[in-house]
Amino acid sequence: MPVRSIPKNYRSLTGKVIDFRSQSAVAFESALERDLYLLIDFDDAVARFEEQPVTIPYRDPAGVSRTYTPDVLVYYHSGLADQQDRQPVLYEVKYRDDLRANWGDYKPKFKAARRYARVQGWTFRLITEREIRTPYLKNAKFLREYRHRTLDSGDCCRVLAMLAERCETDPEALLVALSDDRWERARLLPVLWQLIAVRQAGADLTVPLTMRSRIWSFAPREERCDELIPQGHSRHGGHRRGTTLPDQPGTGLGERARP
């Protein structure tokens, strides 16, 4: 239950986004915050999250007692094969221009949040559009629409079998291998996008997803294709991990945002 409700704001975008994990609507008070929720929803490593999770007391530069509510607290699954266990992360989302203009006011809030998170066994992270608005976000927005569609299991097996036979290919070449008929290829394309969205087929989502993107299979035959798979691709996590949220290792995004 959020400790703070989000009021209507006629100066910035507010609204709600559906969290398919909990089948609930999550309120946001900026377009950037909405984009973060989309990334959280798309990240299979996330177990659950709480928006507007805690109210933290602090003193402003004039010594006046105030309170501060960070945007979201994210809990992660433990025991994932391709990731180290991660502490919960308390996120605050800000535009870089806002940070530059108001850093003096924000700094005491963020110091208090960092101390509070440390006591709770969490990590506090301040993130901006630089970390959120990446090619991964565009891919997540596109693929998210395919994650919950109902598709024919025979079509899925057919596409996966051809992908396993090819080990690594691209969407265009895979569809050509599946059918000579362009209408049949058009019918099978959503099946491929869904398989990538649900991590049954691999793709590097840190770069724009196109008909010429490299895609690969997770079928048992993969041992025969090891030399063809680019280094850094996750074999068992579906896609390269560490790309959705800036607490994840190996992305260059772990730095705390600075104005």
Task: Give a brief outline of the structure.
The protein has 7 helices and 11 strands.
List keywords for this structure.
259 residues; Trna Endonuclease, Chain: A, domain 1; 18% strand; 11 strands; Arc Repressor Mutant, subunit A; elongated; alpha+beta
**Low-confidence parts lasting 5 or more residues at pLDDT below 50?**
222-244, 247-259
Order of helices and strands: EEHEEEEEHEHHHEHHEE
What overall geometry do the principal axes of the alpha carbons give?
Answer: elongated
Q: N- to C-terminal separation?
A: 31 Å
What does the model show?
Helices cover 34% and strands 18% of the residues. By secondary structure, the chain is an alpha+beta fold. It has two domains: 15-133, 3-Layer(aba) Sandwich (Trna Endonuclease, Chain: A, domain 1); 141-228, Arc Repressor Mutant, subunit A, CATH 1.10.10. A four-stranded mixed β-sheet has the order 3-6-7-8. A three-stranded antiparallel β-sheet has the order 9-11-10. Strand 1 and strand 2 (24-28) form a beta hairpin. The chain is elongated and about 70 Å long. Residues 222-244 and 247-259 have low confidence and may be disordered.
Helices and strands in order:
Layout: E1 15-19, E2 24-28, H1 31-42, E3 46-51, E4 56-59, E5 65-68, E6 72-76, E7 89-93, H2 96-120, E8 123-127, H3 129-132, H4 135-144, H5 153-166, E9 168-169, H6 171-178, H7 182-197, E10 201-203, E11 215-217
Parallel strand pairs: 7-8
Antiparallel strand pairs: 1-2, 3-6, 4-5, 6-7, 9-11, 10-11
